[in-house]
């Protein structure tokens, strides 16, 4: 009779295995930084996909909102601190410009009426302040009529103590060369005075009616008057 010895019960260590990262198949594994709860139920298995959709919606809607409410139309025509958008309201208007005017409710001048220039900074590059005093001096191009209006940052008429916020070329005092100087101030000034007031910013709008602002080579920016800061409170 053959005796078979009993093998001792010894814990045998399993061979160690090294985890190998496979670039072709590792992407199929759950994301390490996402909670495991996202992968337990079938509905939440689309967690990363839904997260990406939410980010896309926030970025898309947010950028569209900023473009329509704080953006500026394309194809700008600049002359010093003055900026105009001659294609606004025409068949050449870009979609963003059309959407901006539709959103704000503003009606741009048609190409057969004239062109509107806006200035939100003085010649030193500082934002206009309705509580400061400015001097707008120089000439405007040959035109049938021009007006200058004081607006706030929302391009709304300023509420002034004088009950007006604009001047027009038929009521402006000029020298023998046709140059003029307009005093812009919350307080009354002698001569050409443009009243201001309030605290919601300041923008000058100069509208030139029946002006030939185009040339054979395309749009040509006219020379506009200077906007100089005189003093601030």
UniProtKB/TrEMBL annotation:
InterPro entries named in the record: DUF1214 (IPR010621), DUF1214_C_sf (IPR037049)
Transmembrane segments: 46-68
Start and end residues of each DUF1214 domain: 113-210
Pfam families per record: DUF1214
SUPFAM superfamilies, sorted: VPA0735-like
Keyword annotations: Membrane, Transmembrane, Transmembrane helix
Protein name, entry field: DUF1214 domain-containing protein
Organism: Pseudovibrio ascidiaceicola
């Amino acid at each position: 009779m053959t005796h078979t010895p009993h093998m001792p019960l010894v814990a045998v260590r399993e061979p160690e295995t090294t985890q190998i990262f496979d670039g072709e198949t590792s992407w199929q594994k759950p994301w390490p930084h996402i909670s495991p709860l996202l992968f337990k139920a079938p509905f939440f298995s689309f967690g990363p996909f839904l997260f990406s959709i939410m980010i896309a919606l926030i970025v898309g809607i947010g950028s569209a909102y900023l473009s329509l409410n704080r953006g500026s139309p394309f194809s700008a025509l600049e002359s010093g601190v003055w900026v105009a958008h001659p294609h606004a309201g025409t068949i050449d208007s870009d979609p963003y410009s059309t959407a901006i005017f539709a959103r704000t409710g503003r009606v741009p001048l048609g190409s057969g009426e004239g062109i509107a220039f806006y200035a939100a900074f003085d010649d030193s590059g500082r934002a206009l302040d309705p509580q400061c005093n400015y001097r707008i001096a120089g000439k405007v191009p040959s035109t049938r009529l021009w007006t200058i209006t004081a607006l706030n940052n929302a391009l709304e008429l300023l509420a002034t103590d004088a009950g007006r916020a604009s001047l027009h070329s038929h009521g402006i005092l000029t020298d023998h060369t046709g140059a003029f100087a307009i005093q812009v101030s919350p307080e009354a000034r002698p001569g050409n005075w443009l009243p201001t007031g309030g605290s919601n910013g300041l923008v000058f709008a100069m509208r030139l009616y029946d002006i030939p602002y185009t040339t054979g080579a395309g749009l040509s920016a006219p020379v506009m008057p200077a906007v100089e800061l005189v003093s601030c409170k």
